[in-house]
Amino acid sequence: MDLSQYKAVVEGLLFVSGSDGLTAKQMAVITELDEDTIEHILNELKYDYENASRGMQMLESEKHYYLASKPEHSDYFRKLRTNAHTSKLTQASLETLAIVAYNQPITRTEIEEIRGVKSDRPIQTILSRGLIEEVGRKNTIGRPMMFGTTLDFLTYFGLRSIDELPPLNEQIDEDDVSEEASLYFDKLTDE
Amino acid sequence: MDLSQYKAVVEGLLFVSGSDGLTAKQMAVITELDEDTIEHILNELKYDYENASRGMQMLESEKHYYLASKPEHSDYFRKLRTNAHTSKLTQASLETLAIVAYNQPITRTEIEEIRGVKSDRPIQTILSRGLIEEVGRKNTIGRPMMFGTTLDFLTYFGLRSIDELPPLNEQIDEDDVSEEASLYFDKLTDE
Amino acid sequence: MIESYQVKIDGFEGPLDLLLHLIKQYEIDIYDIPVALITTQYLEYIETMQKLDLNVASEFLVMAATLLAIKSEMLLPNQEITDEDDYEEDDPRAELVARLIEYRKYKDAAEQLKEIEGEEKESFTRSPEMIKETEKIKPPIKENTASIYDMLEAMQAVFNRKKWSQPMTTTIEKIEIPIQQRMEEVLEIVELSDNGVPFETLFPYYSKSHIIVTFMAMLELMKQKLIYCEQERTFDQLILHKWR
User: Fold this and answer.
1) Which of A117, B13, B39, C148 is most exposed by smallest CB count within 10 Å?
2) Coiled coil located at which positions (chain C) (predicted)?
3) Which of A77, A78, A156 sits opposite C145 (nearest CB)?
4) Distance separating alpha carbons of residues C230 and C244, to the nearest angstrom
5) Confidence at residue B112, expressed as pLDDT on a 0 to 100 scale
6) First to last CA, chain B
């Protein structure tokens, strides 16, 4: 494999790692190249991205490299954001929102564990509608992003504060509430 | 602004939209270019990505375009993804997935008719692995849910679009079965 | 011996799969299935499954009945073979053959998917980028487009799903607040308001039993036609009104 192919791998790694980014060291481990070579490749990529026909740039923060859109295109991205909105929240989005509301701050993986299904799409939906936001990174491996609800969330549901949410955050009790309620309803429908 | 700059904008838009993807039409609205020009730019980008030194490819699913890493680099990315599925799909799941892939949108009942068995479990499995999703309801009695494959289905199998699925064996050559065999069995059945 | 049978039977995805297996094993022409033979073989498998106390899915039994029906129809004297076209339709095996061929198409396709899967040539996308700007543009917010009730329901759906794998247990808890008392309280609140009371405001104490009692009280009041519930559109807020 020659250097230009490794460049492709490094670009792919940066792409896949998303907003989490990667350190040169991590990339060296994954590609089994030495850090100097990685740095060299990163510089080449950085140079490539400066070309006016390219749509991304490389950023560096706390030794993590990641790809990002170019600020000079931000007008278009703003249009993208306002364009993408649908009026009503889907069941998947509502579920995801409920999970974030009661468990914030919470990571994507934790949300998916509770829902039992992949949740990229609903997370993105409620993120882009400003109902949740990034509230920091969890101090575990990979430093995953954590989400929490926003002020708009309160407005949307007509709440004055997050404390006005029904107390589903008492982990042990909440199962019982829904269960007893549903048992009660089962009885009702039988009548 | 010249075409190469618009190319940058389109790449940026695809990059930003991530796994949500974008249609040519959406990109046309956002950039205020006509759809033909967008298609032209997309083709150019597609061509650029085929270069061995590039780390992304363009996928197409349901008229949406997405950027994704290249399947030939998957070994490196698998090291990155902690939530990557290690377990392979079962025969039942693969069968169900094949039926959905070639007949989407399709209801649970229609799947079960083809397979000849109840298929709740494999449907649930491939749903929770994000390989299929609910795509709407059929306009018949009971308005049953219909399923279709997802973007993750494409990425899981390293396909660029649903058209890359291997063609179905519509006609299987039966000439191999010798006359002799059927004669032999005719004798048996008479017994 | 028994073990090998079990392995085989477990490997069948259904009656169609079992039939295809038999057809392959006996090198049968799928367009000209010797029904008597295949029925005998098929029934032997089912019998073995039953002997081994395996849970024979009902689909297997339905297929057995179908095979027997086809077999008996085949035994009937061949009335008149008019012309070639009619023959296809009159063949009692035609429908089964069509199903087998249809199913085999996807069985083969599954095999191909399995091969692709084995090549481990996945690709990966990335999550959409969050747009961080100083002047953050917020999408227009429509108030009360969903109620807490919708969310509560959504949450419940999550818990219900999670519980699929757990045994169902019922806890009967002592109810501290009499329903009658809570009914009076709720009725009073509703009667005091002119424009109705939002559903969620009736849950001021977030204790488990209080929520349930309030809920039951509301339902009882609705049943007795003392209050009614209003929701303009599906995702609108629930409003409680006194019955006039």
Assistant:
1) B39
2) none
3) A156
4) 14
5) 94
6) 85
Amino acid, single-letter form, for residue B171: Q
Instruction: Calculate the alpha carbon distances from C74 to C78, C83, C93, C194 in Å.
Output: 8, 18, 9, 78
Which residues of chain A are within 8 Å of residue C136 when distances are taken between CB atoms? Answer: 130
Task: Give the dihedral of Cα atoms C96, C97, C103, C105; nearest 10 deg.
Answer: -170
Cis bond upstream, residue B105 (ω within 30): yes
Tell me, what's the ipTM?
0.61
Among chain A residues, CA nearest to B57:
A12
**Which residue among C125, C139, C235 places its CB closest to the CB of A85?**
C139
CB contact under 8 A, A168 and C155: yes
- Nearest Cα of chain B lies from the Cα of A37 at a distance, in angstroms, of 15
Write down the domain spans for chain C. Answer: 9-124, 139-244
- Collect the ranges in chain C with pLDDT lower than 70: 1-11, 53-54, 77-89, 128-177, 200, 204-210, 231-237, 244
Given the structure tokens 């961080």, which residue do they identify? C132
pLDDT at B134: 83
Residue with tokens 């838009």: B13
Residue of A nearest to B71 (CA): A12
What count of residues does chain C have? 244
* Calpha distance A48→B56 (Å, rounded): 14
State how far the Cα of B41 lies from the Cα of B6, in Å rounded to an integer.
8
The answer, yes or no, to whether the previous bond of A122 is cis (omega within 30 of 0) is no
Phi-psi region of C53 (alpha: psi -120 to 50; beta: other; left: phi over 0): left
Tokens of B34: 């006509």
CB contact under 8 A, C128 and B69: no
Yes or no, beta carbons of A16 and B67 under 8 Å apart:
no
Q: What's the CA gap between A65 and B28, in Å, rounded? A: 31
Instruction: Give C118→chain A minimum CA distance, Å.
Output: 21
| pTM reported for the whole predicted model | 0.58
| Domain boundaries C139-244, CATH class | mainly alpha
Which candidate from C125, C146, C171 shows the least CB-CB separation from A89? C146
pLDDT of C65: 92
Shortest CA distance from B4: residue in chain A: A53
Residue in chain B lying closest to C128 (CA)? B18
Q: Which residues contact C30 (CB under 8 A, 6 or more apart)?
A: B174, B177, C23, C97, C100, C101, C104
Residue contact A78–C131, C-beta within 8 A: yes
